[in-house]
User: Fold these one by one.
Assistant:
Number 1:
Amino acid sequence: MAWRDSSPIIVPSLNQMPNAVIIGTGSYAPEHIVPNTYFDRVGSNDAWIQERLGIKERRIAQGETTSELAVQAAQRALDMAEMDASELDLIVLATATPDRPAPASACMVQEKLGASNAAGFDIAAVCSGALFALTTACQYIESGFYRNVMVIGADTFSNIIDWDRRDSVFFGDGAGALLLTATEEDRGFIGFDLNTDGSGRDGFTVPAGGSERPASEETLAQGLHCFQMDGPAVYNTAIKAVPESIGKLLSKTGVSIDDVACMLPHQPSIKILEEVARRVNLPWEKVRTNMDRYANTSGGTIPIVLDETWRSEEFQPGDHLLFAAVGAGWTWGTALYKY
Ligand SMILES: CC(C)(COP(=O)(O)OP(=O)(O)OC[C@H]1O[C@@H](n2cnc3c(N)ncnc32)[C@H](O)[C@@H]1OP(=O)(O)O)[C@@H](O)C(=O)NCCC(=O)NCCS
């Protein structure tokens, strides 16, 4: 490993902080497709899943680890930017399903990607993870400490699903990445709103495997290493918290909802997103979704939907892209990007 000076790369003047802009995006989902009809065996059905959740199918990893998914997505983002992995200063990986409890999966990504000059760490904010990760990355860039930061959201929830239960319909596996760099131009991420309320910790949880309930024969027998979810609590929290955060962020940045070109939200369910859009007066045509093909990939959702949007749509300078997430914790928040 080469010695590297860790002093700040950019020294911002008092009135000119760099902005963080997206120069590459990438995504990756495993090949294996599981259609809704698979869940007939647990008492669910295609019509219910499509109508309530907007999901038609999901991708499930077969032996691939979270970091392997993450590396594929990150490499695609590097390719788009025509950047070599050795130019990365930092890797921030959002995941709730790391390869191992220790070390952080960002270490595996750093090594597999060949990011020989990058530091890396994981962020644990479950379905809000990518939003928390990109906000963190932006702080490093805006402070001048780092220039090139890879943000990845990657999850393999298939490892924490009880496949004999009906709530196994909700999730899929996948990863997305966005490559950020510093610019002096008036564009990039212009505002964030992050929130946490730990009183909601049981709304979505994996009860065992941590210090509260270490792994034991009993926790295994009781299936406590799989997620447990209070669906109505998730729904009621999401439809209240996300619109509030959007309102706060728009008023903080002085941007009107009419100026939002599109929203790139976490993908919990179509019903949640329809209600959020209705509450903030955002026309449904401006909401980007892909849960029909991937279901909820937790940390992966926002960067995957960003990658698809970035590659398929034309934006004009000054267009605003709104990112929004809600997840276990509770955690929730928003970010605004000026193209
Ligand atoms: C899960 C959710 C769709 C349930 O909706 P709801 O109407 O509040 O839930 P209920 O428990 O009253 O169930 C409604 C009906 O759906 C049925 N149902 C629940 N889960 C089902 C499933 N997986 N498959 C088929 N039917 C199901 C129930 O049996 C009930 O049927 P009934 O009306 O014949 O009794 C809703 O709460 C939701 O979208 N929550 C958010 C969950 C989420 O997004 N999680 C991922 C992010 S962490």
Number 2:
Amino acid sequence: MKLTRRSLILAAPALLVARQAWAATDPTPRASEGPFYPVEIPSDHDSDLVRIDSLVREAGGEILQLRGEVTDTGAKPVAGAVVEIWQCDANGVYRHPGDRRPNLRDTAFQGFGRTTTNSDGSFSFRTILPVPYPGRTPHIHAKIIADGRPALTTQFYRAGYGQNDRDFLYNRMSAEERERVSMAIRPQSSNSKTQWETDIVIVLPRRG
Ligand SMILES: [Fe+2]
């Protein structure tokens, strides 16, 4: 077939559908675990990173309700998957002996949380809006472990954050990959404390 301008225009919707179907079933892009995965899992590692059981004070920072869904490459929810997240505190310091600025650490921030997906693949965390730290744009690390599949380790970014374009890991991704690890963060008006919410989708790699 001779490719005229008109035939290209007519074919465009079909190409678009094919591309979207491909995008929906491709696994979430992987990213390095980085140096700050906990050396030892803390005793309080629940899905509320803003509060540590033994403390009255809550962590500093702006609260983020992080909701997500874990699916397979066929867009089917994955129940019972273990989802872990970890991130630095509001001062940009990790709860990790390798962080070089321990004196600045917010001791009320849990830093790491773990949960399991429900029957519909959903999960949620109460955490803080990620902030930059030296050398990195804001991000939340995540690791997902599900039966019979290779573990997926990745990082999620704040959509539209000015510093993203200067981040060495963010820059390694294509525009489409960036889109799939970006969190669109919306204000949540129901609380007097500054609060935000976001929804993400994590697509697991195929069974090994
Ligand atoms: Fe990090």
Number 3:
Amino acid sequence: MSETPVIELIEGQQKGGCPVVHFDVNQQLPIHSYHEELDQLRGQAPIVWNTYGGGFWMLLNDETVRAAFHDHEVFSSDSTVVTVPEPNWHWIPTMENPPRHKLYRRVLNPPFSPRAVRDREDRIRQHATDFIDTFVADGRVNFVEAFAKEYPTKVFLEILGLPHEDSPQMVEWVEAVFGGLGSEDPVAAKAGGDAQVAINAYFVELLADRKANPREDEFFTDLTRSSIGDDPISDEDFLNICNVLILAGLDTVKSQLGYIMLHLAENPDDRQRILDEPDLIPVAVDEMVRVYSIVMDGRKVAQDTEFHGCPMKAGEMVMLTVPSATRDETKYANPGKVDFDRTDSTGHLAFAAGPHKCLGNHLARREMIIAIEEWLRRIPHYQAVEVDALRETGPQLGLEELWLEWEVTA
Ligand code: HEM
């Protein structure tokens, strides 16, 4: 963590009686800085106004973030990027509000249901082992590059029926979009915009192809044939859904796995515990997802409101600061500690709550569980190297790289 605090209350400044900070949510910081800085900030106030970008509220504890996830009449999804209140894109289902939002989830839920994920488990496991086999004899790997980026992408593109050769291009586009979202750096912002255009063009071509050459039992063909309420899905809706799926399905698992593998590298007792009790891995993964949660999404205030003492105006943006809420001391005892035996962690907000609860949460959980199982089967003991040099970035938290080393036995 950095020596000087990155987020500080600006003395003498208030907005409607609530504290004010300046915090660049796109910056690169030493590993774990975001979580630790947010812990400090939450200790001072549950809600602050951040002057970064055009300014936005930050909800920091479980109670406020949970309430906002459930109240679309005040906290609308018209924009979900806090630094872009008037987006020139429309992600579906992300930016739909109830009741229409439900029509889209009805179409999208089945391929990502617990059962659908269970049916794919063998394939997912195969992909995990194939990737690990490529570097297990080397004794050293950049985990983010060689595994965390590649494995969820391969799994996800297979579910969608897209060719794996497109994977490097997809990963590059998705990274550019996240790097540019709301960034004040014009180069990053332009690269992000260009990547969104490129993703859209990719799916325009795919849509034309699936209409001309429908395939049986294939995700995108099924989507072209689906209905939203009483109407056949429009081309525009189809494209807006595809854009979201690619953005939500690839980078998130990559980012989350980085934190999990780093934790298990640095905490050999926790690693030994799940080596001894592999049935504990699902619980362990969920606990690590809670402590190192990564998504900092936004909502747009739809009507003037007084929320927990802060006067919010229609049109203002609000960050639902999940990486802070999942470590709220009023909800969890010793919240920053990974504890596989805790009984108070069910219902955490790392995958959100309410109507927009993560569509891919069953898939993501299964991918991470399998990754840990297969990694530890082959590489039970390993260390992270050059941890002091590790960096993370926002607004969706993720490690830039993670070098791991282990002893190779003949
Ligand atoms: C560890 C991995 C993941 C985490 C931590 C995560 C977290 C989240 C969170 C917090 C939201 C709520 C966003 C909001 O309401 O503004 C969300 C929504 C969403 N996630 Fe995930 N996600 C992960 C993986 C995935 C995967 C693998 C998919 C692939 C299908 C996916 C698809 C989606 C979609 C489509 C939404 C929008 C849902 C809606 O608006 O109804 N996510 N995710």
Number 4:
Amino acid sequence: MRAAIGVDLGGTKIAAGLVGAGGVVLDRASAPTPAAQGPGAVLDTVVDLVRSLLERTGGDVVVSGCGVGSAGVIDAVSGAVSSATDSLPGWSGTRVRDVLTAALAMPVAVVNDVHAHALGEALHGAGAGSPTVLMVAAGTGVGGALVIDGRVQSGRRGVSGHFGHVPAIEAVGRPCTCGGSGHVEAVASGPAMCAVYRELSGDASVVDGREVVRRAADGDAHAAASVALAGGALGRMIGGLLNALDPDVVIVGGGLASAGEAWWTALRDAAGAERLPLLADTPIVGAALGADAAIVGAAALVAATVMEEPA
Ligand SMILES: [Zn+2]
């Protein structure tokens, strides 16, 4: 039986899985990301996790390689990190593919973690069977990817899918995490939704999006307005992307996708108002694979990459 290792490398946690046919996760291992200890320690942890999975693998399983979905912008040619946020100090410039290929002695493919997440959902999750999949993930930030025929469209610099940095009328004048302002992430991310709630309510104690969602469900009008603004801004953005890209399906994932019915209603209403009439029946659905999506997508990347490499 053939299988591949998939790794989801984030700022707080590294999760690895042994993934078999059909994107089935056969075994898994995870550890906290030693972010403060630097890139060397982070990659050592990845190697330890992959080795632990390999040691537990039965003799009838052939592992074809290791796919990594990593935080940061990944250069497709070098497999190195072009840019990363402060959640992984020193991560920018790290040659993830070269280091792991040498340490693991197997083919290694690296993509951005959101791209891996989208690929997993497109191939084996809510997008299975759809040729063109638009994935939108909203949580700490807002991002996603366009997947066409099982390939993430990563763009010239690997930056494609930074949907959070599309201008939004709801965000005019609001500073964005990228250093710009007026981008949809500045109202539609979890932290932005909290910030809007703090402004409206004057309650500076709320720093967790889940608390805003709870308060909205309990009838707090400021919380409800914050949730509606976040969901509506994301929905308007999705409607615009639908018009630009005409995918077969839109998958919405990330932490905010579990924010409840009010958020989803705002999102669907805004997307519905924005999209062109011909696109009225394009499904907008929730993600299906949960936390496994990036592992499954990263493992799928191995199959594609290994097959394409010259013998
Ligand atoms: Zn921005």
